[in-house]
Amino acid sequence: MLLEVYGHGGDVKTASARFGMAAEKFIDLSANINPLGPPPGLLQKLREAMPDIVRYPDPGHRVLLSLLEERLRIRQDCLVIGNGAAENMALALLALKPERVGIIEPCFSEYETLSAQFGAKVSSVLGRAENNFHADPEEIVALIRDNDLVFIGQPNNPNGIQYGWNELCRFAEAAESYSTYLVVDEAFIDFIPEKDRVSLLGELHRYSRVILIRSMTKFYAIPGLRLGYAIAHPDLAAVMRGKQVTWSVNLLALLAGEFCLQAEQKYEDETITFIAKQRQWLREGLAGLGCQTWPGEANFLLVRLPEGWTAANMQKALGSKGILIRSCAMYNGLGERDVRIAVKDQICSDKLLEAMREVMGNRSN
Ligand SMILES: Cc1ncc(COP(=O)(O)O)c(C=O)c1O
Hints:
Elements: H1 12-19, E1 27-28, H2 42-49, H3 62-72, E2 79-82, H4 84-96, E3 100-105, H5 110-117, E4 121-126, H6 137-146, E5 149-153, H7 165-178, E6 181-185, E7 210-215, E8 228-232, H8 234-241, H9 251-261, H10 265-288, E9 292-293, E10 300-304, H11 311-319, E11 323-324, E12 326-327, E13 338-342, H12 346-362
Parallel strand pairs: 1-11, 3-4, 3-5, 5-6, 6-7
Antiparallel strand pairs: 2-8, 7-8, 9-10, 10-13, 12-13
Helix pairs in contact: 2-9, 3-9, 4-5, 4-8, 6-7, 10-12
This protein binds pyridoxal-5'-phosphate (PLP).
């Protein structure tokens, strides 16, 4: 049985029960979290703030909003702070009540899960491996035409692909002309060098139906705290905020967000350079083991295992050695040999490659 019993990677509790090892002992390559950890000083700041948990968090998220306003050069009324990017997706669906939602598969499973939870009918187009998982732009425009809301991952999970700036503008214009909402999930965009070239952020004033969703949990390594935000036309942002449960973003998460946005630029630059170098290292190592990977700039790789291996048996073999990988066998458009592996540091990558070499040498499946 696979480890993704809740539909996602990073489930060290399930792994612990399955492999009989303490949860914190695993090298977890099944969730894509910054290997450098949170910005220096954050944990100390949180420890100092512990006595404050006797108070309610600011329901207006005021300090974080003003820091984001400054950093993104976007008005505060265009912003929605959420309990992770995931809450912002739910708020978009709650606020806009789409009857038909379009997705581009393979993609983050919550697009479909949340849409179905909120009663929408989901349809999809497919990005194919032979085309580096880029779906045909004409098909995406048709998807926008035929639905009330369309999700696009930029970069997309689990394959790391990105759409070019001109393509994004074309999709945003199609959304305007067909009166469709376009939700661009930029949860991993902070890992991308010079991200402005692949984000619609600077063009948002031109589009009244585009919502960008960003996560702070991955880049700043705080998934346990939950923090993300959405950027949209003020009218859209207002309806999203109108659906939010008061205090859904907790005091420690707000404080962490404020700290991260004021952290030294060096931490962010180092993360981006580090990931680029480590991704290359991991890609080459995996190629040496006969695995196929695809180009991309995100902090994870989609990996097709050699013939004879399945995600399930590789996940099991590595899990028993204390290494967790994400099976991608359940994604539409992917197959039983596909897994996703996070880019961490060289020690983790070397341990993974060594373990794979061992299990592949020991067994010809
Ligand atoms: C593509 C994508 N978007 C959004 C999320 C959710 O991010 P958050 O932790 O900020 O809710 C994830 C989490 O894995 C993801 O992979």
